[in-house]
Design goal:
Structural class: mainly alpha
CATH superfamily of the largest domain: UbiA prenyltransferase
CATH class of the largest domain: Mainly Alpha
Strand content: under 5%
CATH topology of the largest domain: Tetracycline Repressor, domain 2
Number of domains: 3
Low-confidence stretches: 289-304
Largest sheet: none
Number of strands: 0
Number of helices: 17
Helix content: over 70%
C-alpha cells in the first residue's frame, strides 16, 4: 500500500470507530453528558462521571476524524488533484464533517431534538460513504461504467440508508418497544395499531426485509463471476451483517433496549452501510464501459420477445407445476390424519393455495439460480430462463413475490406456523439444496429431499397449529423415500 491508501484506510476505520462511539452515547443515554459545546461543563476536559466521559470520548473521536479527513483532502489536493475519483470525495468529506460538527452543537443546544439527532446520524453515514468511496477508489482500477450491476448495488446502498434512517427515528421516537415481540407485531403479521410510532417501526422492519432480499439477489447474481469476485465477497459480508443486524434488532426488543444491544445495532448498521457503499463503488469500477448486458448475468441465451400468451405460459412453467402437484398430494393426507377426518374445505383450499404459492416461488428461484447449468442439459435447456423467454432478474423477482404472497396468505388464512414452515422449506430448498448441495456433491438429494417432505408438516400445522410426532413420522417416510426414487429415475 502507498501512503495515500494507508491514510484513507485509517480514516475509514476511525470513522467507523466514531460511529461506534456515537452508538455508545445513544445506548448509554449519554447525549447530554456534556451539556455545552465545544466544552464539557465549561471546561476543556470532562468531569470524571460516566456519561460525561462517554460523550467526551465521542467528541475526541470526532476530533481525530477531522484531522484525518483534512489530511486525506490535502494529500489528494497535492498528489491527485487531476484524479476526480479521489479528489472530489476527499474534498466532499471535509465539507460534510464541518456540517457534522455544527450539527453536533445544534443537537446539544436543542436538548437532543429528535429530528436533529437523526440528521446528525445521517450526516455521519454520508461522511462514512465519502471516506469509503475515496478508499475503494484508491485501491481500484480507474474507469468504470454505471451498468445494471452498479445500478443494482447503488439501489441496495440507498435501501440500506433508508433502513438506517428509519431505525434512527424508531430510537428517537421511543418506538423500539412499541411491539413486545419479534419478528411479529404483537402476534400479528400486520400491526393492528396505526399510530406514528407503530408505523415507523413497521416501516423499518419491512424496509430491512426488502434490503435482505436485495442482498441475496446480488449475492447470487455475482456468484461464480471471477470479474466481480470482490463485489461477491462484499455482498456476502453485507448479507452476513444483515443477519447479525436482524438478531441485534430482535435483541433490542428481547432485552428491553439493553445498552449492548443498542450499541451493537448502531455499529452493525454502520458496517452494513459501509459494505454496501464499497460494493456499489466496486461494481462501478469493475464494469468496463459497454460491457454489461442484462446485469452481466451468464446462463441465458439471447432473449426473444414472446406475446402475452407465451409470456403467461412461460411464467406458469417457471413455477414447475408438475412438482407443485406432487407436493400438494402429500399435504392433504397429512391434514386428514391430523383432523381425524376431513378438515373444512375452506382450510384445505387455503392451505393448498398458500402451499402452491410457496412451491411455485421456490421453483422460480431455482430456475434463476440454476440457469447456467440448465442451459447445458437437453432436459432443462428449454426452461423459460435459459431459453431466454424470461429475463433472470424478473424470474427471481417473480419467485420472491410468490414467497411473500404465500407467507402473508397462509399467516392470514391458516396460521403463522404453516406460513413459517412453507417459506422455511423454500429457504432450505434454495440455499441448502440448490445453491450448496447441488453443486457440491452428486448425493445432494439425500439431504436436499427434506424440502420435498416439508408439505406434510405444513398440512399438519394447518390443522393443529403445531408439529406433532405423527407429522415427523410422515416427514421421515417421504425423506427416506426420495433418494431411491430419484436414483431409480436417473437409471432410466
Amino acid at each position: 500500500m502507498n501512503r495515500f491508501q494507508k491514510l484513507s484506510l485509517a480514516t475509514t476505520v476511525m470513522t467507523l470507530v466514531l460511529i461506534g462511539v456515537g452508538g455508545t452515547v445513544r445506548g448509554t443515554g449519554s447525549g447530554l453528558g456534556c451539556p455545552d459545546w465545544p466544552r464539557c461543563h465549561g471546561k476543556w476536559y470532562p468531569p470524571l462521571t460516566f456519561h460525561a466521559i462517554i460523550e467526551y470520548s465521542h467528541r475526541a473521536s470526532a476530533s481525530i476524524v477531522i484531522v484525518l479527513v483534512m489530511a486525506v483532502a490535502v494529500f489528494a489536493w497535492v498528489k491527485y488533484r487531476s484524479v476526480a475519483s479521489l479528489f472530489w470525495p476527499a474534498l466532499g468529506a471535509v465539507g460534510v464533517i464541518a456540517i457534522q460538527a455544527f450539527l453536533g452543537k445544534l443537537v446539544v443546544d436543542s436538548g437532543l431534538n429528535s429530528h436533529l439527532v437523526v440528521i446528525h446520524f445521517a450526516t455521519s453515514l454520508a461522511l462514512l460513504a465519502l471516506v469509503i468511496t475515496t478508499t475503494v477508489n484508491a485501491f481500484s482500477p480507474r474507469g468504470g461504467s454505471f451498468g445494471p450491476l452498479a445500478r443494482e448495488a447503488v439501489g441496495i446502498s440507498a435501501m440500506t440508508l433508508v433502513v438506517a434512517v428509519l431505525g434512527a427515528y424508531v430510537t428517537q421516537w421511543g418506538a423500539a418497544l412499541i411491539f413486545a415481540d419479534w419478528p411479529l407485531f404483537d402476534g400479528r403479521v400486520i400491526p393492528a395499531s396505526s399510530s406514528p410510532h407503530a408505523l415507523i417501526h413497521f416501516a423499518h422492519r419491512v424496509a430491512a426485509l426488502i434490503l435482505g432480499l436485495g442482498l441475496a439477489r446480488l449475492y447470487v447474481a455475482t456468484r461464480g463471476k471471477e470479474r466481480y469476485r470482490p463485489v461477491h465477497i462484499l455482498a456476502a459480508v453485507a448479507a452476513a451483517m444483515w443477519l447479525l443486524q436482524a438478531l441485534a434488532g430482535a435483541a433490542n426488543i428481547w432485552t428491553k433496549t439493553a445498552s449492548w444491544a443498542v450499541i451493537a445495532h448502531v455499529l452493525g448498521g454502520a458496517v452494513l452501510w459501509g459494505a454496501s457503499v464499497a460494493m456499489a463503488v466496486l461494481a462501478y469500477r469493475l464494469t468496463a464501459s459497454g460491457a454489461a448486458t442484462s446485469g452481466g448475468i451468464p446462463g441465458t441465451r439471447a432473449g426473444t420477445h414472446p406475446g402475452m400468451g407465451q409470456r403467461v405460459r412461460a411464467y406458469f412453467l417457471l413455477t414447475k407445476p408438475r412438482v407443485i402437484e406432487l407436493l400438494l398430494i402429500t399435504t392433504v393426507p397429512a391434514m386428514v390424519v391430523a383432523a381425524h377426518g376431513w378438515p373444512s374445505l375452506a382450510l384445505i383450499g387455503a392451505t393448498l393455495l398458500g402451499g402452491s404459492f410457496a412451491a411455485g416461488g421456490a421453483g422460480a428461484i431455482n430456475c434463476y439460480v440454476d440457469r447456467d447449468i440448465d442451459d447445458l442439459m437437453e432436459r432443462t435447456s428449454g426452461r423459460p430462463v435459459p431459453a431466454g423467454q424470461i429475463e433472470p432478474p424478473r424470474a427471481l423477482a417473480f419467485g420472491i413475490v410468490l414467497e411473500v404472497i404465500s407467507f402473508v396468505f397462509l399467516a392470514a388464512t391458516v396460521n403463522l406456523l404453516s406460513a413459517v414452515l412453507a417459506v422455511g422449506a423454500t429457504i432450505f430448498y434454495v440455499f441448502v439444496y440448490t445453491i450448496w448441495l447441488k453443486r457440491a456433491t452428486p448425493s445432494n438429494i439425500v439431504i436436499g429431499g427434506a424440502a420435498g417432505a416439508a408439505p406434510v408438516l405444513v398440512g399438519w400445522a394447518a390443522v393443529t397449529g403445531r408439529v406433532g410426532l405423527p407429522a415427523l413420522v410422515m416427514f421421515a417416510i417421504i425423506f427416506f423415500w426420495t433418494p431411491p426414487h430419484f436414483w431409480a429415475l436417473s437409471l432410466r
